[in-house]
Batch of 2 targets.
Target 1
Amino acid sequence: MKKYIKLITLTAMTLFYSCQDFLDERQVSNLTQDYFNDENGLESLINGLYVYARVKHEWEANGARLTLAETDAYMTSAPAWARMEVGVYGNDLSNIANNMFNYLGNANASFAPMGAYPHINNCNIALDVLENIAPGVFGTNQSFANQRKAEILFLRSWAFYLVSNQLGDIPLLLTPRRQDDGIYYYPKSSMEDVYNQMITDLTFAYDNLPTSSARGRVTKWAAGHFLAKLYLNRAQGAEFQNSSEESLRMLYKGTNANDLDNAIAISTEVINGVGGLAPDYWTLFDPAVSESNPHPEVLWAAQFDTNIGLNGRFGGNRSVNYHIGNYTEQSGVNRSMIYGRPFGTFKPTDHGYDNFKDKMHDSRYAKTFQHEYIGNMGSNTTSFRWTDATAAWWNANKPADQPEVRSGDIRIQNGRRAIIYLENDKENALDSMEVMSQPFQFLVRWVRSAATGNYYYRLFINGANLGLATQTAPYLSVKKFTDPTRGGSTDESNFNSENGTRDAILMRLAETYLIRAEAYGRRGDYASAVADINVLRQRAAFKGGENRPSSIVQWYPEANELDNSELEAPYAALGDSYDRIMVTENHFTPGTIEANREGYIPTVSTKRDMFIHFIYNEKNREFLGEGIMWEDLHNAGILYDRVMHFNQMASNRTGLWPVAANTAGGNGQNGNGKGQMQRFHTFRPWPFNYLIQLTDQNGQPLDQTARNEYQNPGY
């Protein structure tokens, strides 16, 4: 705290230069407080507040670690993190605590302090100058001043929201601090007070922001989306006011009988104002479209630029690095711009794949993942080779139009398929000789030994165990962040660059629909909720003439549902598949075929509870990898229960998963959970490095008793 509270005496300025990818961060070492007291200085300070929008995407150890992984559907690929071991999660000196310290605010030798509270203090300074000095146009044009005030309040609320999601009760700092007096007295405010403040501020923002603005600046619709979500979160938390579980009781944010109605009303205004979803799900993430002509469905996005010098201290949108498994090992595929840099940091859980219940008809499964890779190494290929056994199998069973092969030859040919993934279940395990005898790496979740009849889970092409936490091994990867301009251009020499240049979506209208749907359902209006969910399903359906990925059609057992014409290249859908994925109340009505197929956890038995869990199943299908699900499951109070039932690496439960013959290693498949998650992990620890810098009102350091009282339960 002592280091980062001096945040404004020497600050990094951020200026707008254009409406597209506008953040230009420049270090200015000779600024004084007086700079912000004139019109240009205040405008620069407000513009600079937008740097904080990048927090979830600019650095793995900051936002991404805290908002992406260890949910029901997404996990860290490294075993210690995925298991939620004590050294990573369980104390105030753990890795997670260190990430929280960065999240709250930390000093940097070459840049201004970063994090939530330095940003909040900058917001407070901007508000103070705007309201009490009102320089230039801020004093002569009330409409302009209100718009800029609305932006400040939105961006301050965004920081309070992100931090309270992690920690619960937090310091609610509303006045500027310009000098370091050695007193670091920051008592926590209740979640009720934090939400009252955010709702008040977002109401002002919603009333005073324009419906359109320069790209990257917040609008009325972004504020409305955020405000509706706050109303929904408060209504969710109200149910836990008297819970016997402390971790649920901590979610209480106050009670207001109108919260669900307000969430519905404001969501409706946003939906009507924006005008609809992007027609094709993939165009939201296709860099050829999303960077040049983003659809209005994107309500707010953090801005990055192909001029990587403008992207701040971490060089850009780092999410390009975190979602991609290693596709280069003995595959004949080299790192390339189109496939991304394979850091293998985060990956789906098995449930994350299996939650897509209609893989043949819900195009989000095809469009979320990179299902196959093409060999690109030419004569320098690292492909594995045919063996006597695999060559013999292939020659005996190959398609008629494919050539025979010889033992010892390179198996993967340049320009041909190099890797294909299949997320099957044990009941649909493939024959091991078939899997191991293809002219590509065939990475199949379940295979059955042709010799012994044993079942094996996630074998590599050399027979090695990939396990549940694959680390940097190949896995079916989310492709939403693939960036062909990382490093600043499309030059293939940038294939090792970590510096992403694409804007990062923070809010989009599909979520607004699901916010309204959940509010309707919690109010008992299931028909209206289903109508909203089906807006997403209509977009998700394959349209007539749209091609399915060949690997899905050729290898998933659901392909037997398709017409014969759809089984032939280019695997075009015969017609719109919406009727196959349309949602009805049966999907969350106990005892129905649809509800049973959805796979609810055993403790979810009523229609109301099934509905709530269906919403979060649908959110996982729509937003997998986008960084909102940890927070949403947390605020709904269902994070722990879903992680324990669905995320085998984080759970400590036994017997919930199918058993394989390859149980070796700490993350092998033996049917049991590998994790150490506890209920209190749904809130994070206050970092030791933060606590030891706190003082009382007189500047005296807090004693151990006071620090223990400040700390969250369980740590």
Note: The first helix runs from residue 39 to 48.
Target 2
Amino acid sequence: MNKFFTLLAFILLFNTASQAQGNSIASFKAYGHDDDVVYGMSGAISFYFKVTPLIEMNGSKLVLFFEPSQALIKSHSYINLVINNKPAYSSHLGPDSIQKIIINLSRADLSPDKFLKIQIKTLLTITDDQCKDLDNPAMWLKIKNYSYLSLVKSNKNFFDNVNISNCFDSKKAIVYPSNPSLHDLKAVAWAYSRLKKTQTREIAVYEESKLPDSVRNYIRVGAIDKLPADARALVKVTPQNTQGLFYLHKSVSLLTDTIVHMVDVKGRLVPVKTVTQEQAPKEVLFVTGGDDTGYEKAITALGNMNILNSTYGDYLLINKAENTFFKTIDENRSKLSLKQIGGVSDFLSGIGSLKSAYSFKNSDFSFTPKEVEIRFVANYSGLAPGDRGFFNIYLNGLLISSEKLDASGKLNSSITINRYQHHKYNTLEAEFRFYPTNGNCKNSFTNFFAEVDVDKSYLESKNPFITSDLSFYQYPEAFNNGTTKIVVSEEYAKYAAGAMGEIIYELNNNINANNFPEFVYSKDLKPTDLKQYNIIALLSKDDKVLKEFRDAPIQFDRNFRLYNTDNNSPVYSLSDTVSNGLAQIFYGVSNNATLVLTATGTHVSEAFLAVSKSITEQLSTLSSNVCISDVNSNKYLFNINKSSENLEYIDTKSGLTRFWDSYNLYILLGILILILLSFLYVRSKVQKSQDLFND
């Protein structure tokens, strides 16, 4: 009998494990959301989640955790969920500090473009008097980042639903040959850029010999005749000479795994191993070509979103590929409408604070702006006598403009901001604030409305930010004009793939992505190239090309050390064995933009990748031109020029000077001790003489 129950328990555990393996748990944090807060009496927030073709919506769930303000009257406050623009759930708040809602999802909840749109709307109460509640800062509700989607993975219709146009959403890695060519590096960079525009999670880059068995969904780049036999066997279409090829291999195999459950046996938790089997799909997108010419066409097509988004089959033979963007009269992108930067027309109604938010980057312009004019054009319901209304503009959370509304119902407001007010990445908010006559708010909730015209509202860069020294604040838009060459040391090429992907992504992370650099080995770089092109170089510290960058803040042919100016402690030395990446940006010989990245230590790939990410972050200074970043996410910024005191070239000093620099504190301490001992000796002699005289 005991054996029967043991067998039954084993079967139940097996079934449970199998079901668990069929579900994908994706937290809001994994999608890039932190704890998001809904403010105000009547607030709203929206979430958009991309759903891959391998997800079966029937049976999937939304599990929402939220924390209401402790000041709310919970029984008189409400939360509403709208999924795909249809009401899904409404309820007053419960008494718990952290509350939970579970919603069953279905295929009808997906939009036609395969997004799951979730809106959360609130109606909150603190005093039961709406007029007093209007501007109470205690009115908020926090959506926790550990809320999650429990999505059912399904292989049903896998072979029919997954194609080249939608397969990028689920790719997790890029694989390249162990000895990559320039074509391979270029393919990795453009594939990386395409994936990063699709995903918020980290993108892994592997040499083919280091690909983990657990990674089954990836992009594989390489010339068709150089693919290993097992990989070549997966490609069922053979491109001809001068033809490029995208080929999506799809298969489903049975994976066997062992999982461990902790089972309570007589009050003790005992580990119990169970064997599970799962039908696991495998997707490999090959980017290749019949020869180098065809391979280059496939790489070019990677940078063309129109081609990628309209390829609904499992393979695409490419006979012609080009990325030619016709420039308009506004070719310098000095004026951007709010619609161009992603703004949508929101119809706002109610009282109190009504906000619309927009985001823009310096790189959306063709050059780093010195001054930006922000203009809002909007319509609103005219104010009645005695009503109070205001229009406020916030930039990065700070109020920069406020003006009164009137009876006209027309708004045409502008303000010009300087370079100290806007950052590399900016959040712009437009706020209408309305208070009805005599505070009679209970009967006026629908009396006021407003809408920003996103076509007529715009951002305009008045002047370019021009300095004698280039800084990371001006990256990447400094490379927008002219042609850019990406230069790499041949012996470091295999380590630079991921960093190149970050660079290509940033060069095209704007509203008019059309920066297609050329790739070249450093040994093939011509002296005239340094004058004709913008240069982005990923080099070993011993590369001879470094000597050509005489305008660089740091010269690598001399042993140097960088100091922290606050406490004069060494931060970086060229002889460090720790894996560090060093980036420096400057104007080249013909005033062309130049960025040089170097890496040291045993983890060269990680060092290159770390520093390539660091220079794209929201930097806190306008003048940093040197960045040190290690594989542990430590980062240091410097402003180095010819008179800088935090840069020291060690090899220019004599042996005696270097000895003094190293041991001066000990020498001074020794001299001080000798002086003290001499004083005590003399004092003791004087005291002894006085004693003899007195006797």
Note: Residues 424 and 618 are 6 Å apart (CA to CA).
